Amino acid sequence: MTILDVGAPVRQRPSTVPVAVYGHRWCGLTQMIARALGRAGVDFQYVDLDLHPEIEHRLRLTLGHRLRTPLVYVGGDWYMAPSLMELQNALVRHGGW
Q1: pTM
Q2: Exposure of 23 by Cβ count < 10 A (0-12 exposed, 13-18 middle, 19+ buried)?
Q3: What are the two backbone dihedrals, phi and then psi, of residue 79, each rounded to the nearest 5 degrees?
Q4: Measured between alpha carbons, how far is 80 from 89 in angstroms, rounded to an integer?
Q5: How far apart are CA 85 and CA 61, in angstroms?
Q6: Closest by alpha carbon to 63, among 47, 87, 81, 50?
Q7: Concatenated DSSP letters of 30-55
């Protein structure tokens, strides 16, 4: 099963690698990634940057004011606006899949 399988059943074993999604509720890509992770049974934290502008400000300072959402944290690495395939590869690489 891959996170790209739309009709796939939810995974039963939760991910052990820390995963966080930083984005906006109005961002289609952010919502698609959050839904895909949820369908795949990956435990993740969602940070709504509309509700936490101070976090968005810190991320912009860290990234040199270049921030595209979603920003996804997987096991110590950051991925800016990743595709589902990039996200899946990151989860596999970090042992979270």
Answers
A1: 0.82
A2: buried
A3: -130, 120
A4: 14
A5: 28
A6: 81
A7: HHHHHHHHHHTT---EEEETTT-HHH
